[in-house]
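tool=predict chain=A
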Amino acid sequence: MARQSPSAIISGAGWTASVFLKLQKAVQKEGGTDEDLYKIDLPGGESLITGMAKLIVGAGNKVAQVAVDLQVRLKALIAGTGCGKNFYLDSTVKDSDLPDEVEGEDAQFEETTTRSRHTAEIFGEIKEKGRPMASPQVLLERYAKAHPEAGKHYQVAVIWQKNGRWFYAALHWHIGRQRVDVYCSGAYGLWSESSRFLVRKP
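tool=predict ok
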């Protein structure tokens, strides 16, 4: 019997469901839930799919190794929060995407609210008020440690823009403990009214 080509196998009945179940099991093995898996269908989910595609295409060659090396600083920041494996780091976000650290960023910060809006709108709204958004370094290195229950009742996040792309880092509550998410979100990711954003005190 002739061996079927990969294209023929992929187009066959049942292949998609089989692969999805394997992905679901892999997410659960990493401590995730169906809620985490559902993120691929939410705003910004395209970046997750793109990240998986890059890993698949680059598997077994130097490209995959370079992607890991370019997230050393990000992984250190996340590990420093003490969240363990309770985090998600978008594979398309690199250390070079972090904003430059500002001298004196150990100043006091506070949470601010905003009505339900898109990422770029919220960033502009806060900027217009003259309240600089905290950096992800401050959120993860200092704020998360000083407030181990941050995110329990509402998520606390920071938004930044660099290299022509939008990013966010957020603290929220997941399986009974603080969770960290770092995403390349796009300008039109929608935030609910229950979100809080970390800004510098006046």
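Residues 14-200 form one domain. Helices lie at 6-11, 15-29, 34-37, 45-58, 62-69, 72-79, 119-128, 136-146.
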